[in-house]
Amino acid sequence: MHNFKPLLGFFVILLPSLWFTWLNQNAPRFGDFGDDALYFVSGKSLLDGNGYRILSLPGEPPQTKYPPGYPALLAAAWSDGATFPTNLTRAVWLQWRMLPVTLLLMMLYWRRIGLGPRWQWGLAALHGLNPYILFLSVMLMSEMPFTALILAALVALDVSESKGLKWAAIAGVLAGIAFLFRTIGVAMLVTTPLLFLLRKKWGHAAVFAAAMAPAVVGWSLWAKMHLPSGTDVITLYYTNYTGYHWMNFHWNEAHLFVWKNVDSLLFGIGTLILPHVIDSGLLKILAEVLALGSLIGCWRIAKERPATWHYIGFGVVFLGMLLAWSFPPNERFVIPLAPLLLAGFVREVQGLVDNIRKGFTHKDSSQRSAARVMAAVAGTILVSCLAFQIVTTFRLLPEMMQTYGKQQLKNKPGYEWSKQNLPVDAKVLAEKDTSFYLYTGRKAASLIVPTIHLYRDDSKAQVAAYSDAVGYAKRHGLNYIYLTDDDFRRDLDPEDFEKIQTNLRVLAGASKLYDSNGIRVFRVD
User: Fold this and answer.
1) 17, 482, 503, 520 - which has most CB atoms within 10 Å?
2) Among 404, 437, 433, 425, which residue's Cα sits nearest to residue 84?
3) Where are the domains of the chain?
4) What is the pTM of this model?
5) Which long-range contacts (C-beta less than 8 Å, at least 24 apart) are formed by 193-198?
6) How far apart are CA 227 and CA 150, in angstroms?
7) Could you tell me if 208 and 169 are in contact, meaning their C-beta atoms sit under 8 angstroms apart?
8) What's the angle, vertex CA 469, arms to CA 464 and CA 474, rounded to 5?
9) Residues 441-499: tens digit of each pLDDT
10) What is the 3-state secondary structure (H, E, C) of 402-456?
């Protein structure tokens, strides 16, 4: 019976995610991020023996943007003759399995670091019941398996302190595999050897670096050898991370990127604690204050438990890379640090509670009154965070997924018409280009708008770029355009979205072939 209780507790933590995954096992939001569908078709390419290519894009260029780790995992969804879209269910459950693995590794890591059972189970519950974690448990994105691999490498690093160089090598191999899921994992190749060197553990530094380097060097060389030579926005966006970055980033405007990224990053961290339920300036400020508290808590943990330095060091470089990137980092980007960030938040709350308790017994009545006020404010904030988490998990997330499911059903007739009526060699401009390919078999590319307009707050340039569908199609050799009334909604303010949709109702220089239920297909003249 004693051994049964942990299993029961673990199952209880997983129940909401099991429920949510069961409701959404048909992947109603598949293709909305774009990356998920690209991972999926790249996995199909690997399994079919076509090499590592972007099957959906005209010309099927090599996939040199995303390393092959996650697509190789998703390739299992295409095995045994499985076909799209029925194999999405298999892929979703494959993705969900990453959650219990992550929780187990997280609990093991915190136990090795010296946190007691209450901390281990409390942090596992905070992580496993978090609405953003639940959401990514059904989305075919690489953050979840990447997080599990980073935690596995951190556990191995801690074991290496007592068990020797063999475990440092194992940690390096695991970190290398993590890099093959997300290239930002290269941060560990910087921080881990450096931390070992600072402690004069030369052997550990050398062995870890030697074990991780083959994955980093191997992928980098392969990507460089197969990198398409084009410098147009489509080629750079789909195949060249750094090339697309430098298309957007300019040193004389670096302050715009850093400022917006700091704001987005703090908000992303804060919404792990206080979910973004409504647009409110006050709630945004509160979320960012909670984010700062979480980061301060991480600093306290680092001071109290030096064994966490590998995770802390990785997190510092990881966040630094996000701040310098040409895309605002939201809560999805910080998921690999969520176990640490949530621990930091709990540590800061613990310190606050201790101070309030001392205030309750202070001999000065004004201090006792201040403690009561602080307790009321802190209690209100924490209860609000819990309430927002519950509302997001059990109402808003299911409603959102239902909405996307309806949009998918709405698209089916347009996909079917395109499959039946467009030439086999058609090249189509479509927002959800990879989904369009999977449903119709026709090559497609999305309308890519450089993020520099976002950093400049230049809404006119954004509206003009999204409205120039015909010109964009002609410049990139796309001879058909597939549009829906929901295109580009996720990236724009409502007012700009309505302007673009109005501009895209009738396209000069294109002939309308299909118009039904908010879906339009044009031939570029």
Assistant:
1) 482
2) 437
3) 411-524
4) 0.94
5) 194/313, 195/309, 195/310, 195/313, 196/168
6) 27
7) yes
8) 120
9) 999 999 999 999 999 999 999 999 999 999 999 999 999 999 999 888 877 888 988 99
10) HHHHHHHHHHHHHHHHHHHHCCCCCEEEECCHHHHHHHHCCEEECCCCCCHHHHC
Identify the residue whose tokens are 């708008």: 449
Residue 56 and residue 37 in contact, taking contact as beta carbons nearer than 8 Å: yes
Give pLDDT tens digits for 99-136.
999 999 999 999 999 888 999 999 999 999 999 999 99
Coil vs helix vs strand at 233 = helix
Distant-in-sequence, close-in-space partners of 405: CB < 8 Å, separation ≥ 6: 26, 28
Contact 493, 459 (CB under 8 A): yes
**Which strands sit side by side in the sheet containing 519-524, from one edge to the other?**
443-445, 427-430, 480-484, 519-524, 510-516
For residue 2, is pLDDT > 80? no
Within 8 A by CB and 6+ apart from 361, the residues are 368
- Report which of 182, 183, 175 is spatially closest to residue 208, judged by C-alpha positions: 175
Question: pLDDT digit string (tens) for 147-165?
Answer: 999 999 999 999 999 998 9
In the DSSP assignment, the letter for residue 13 is H
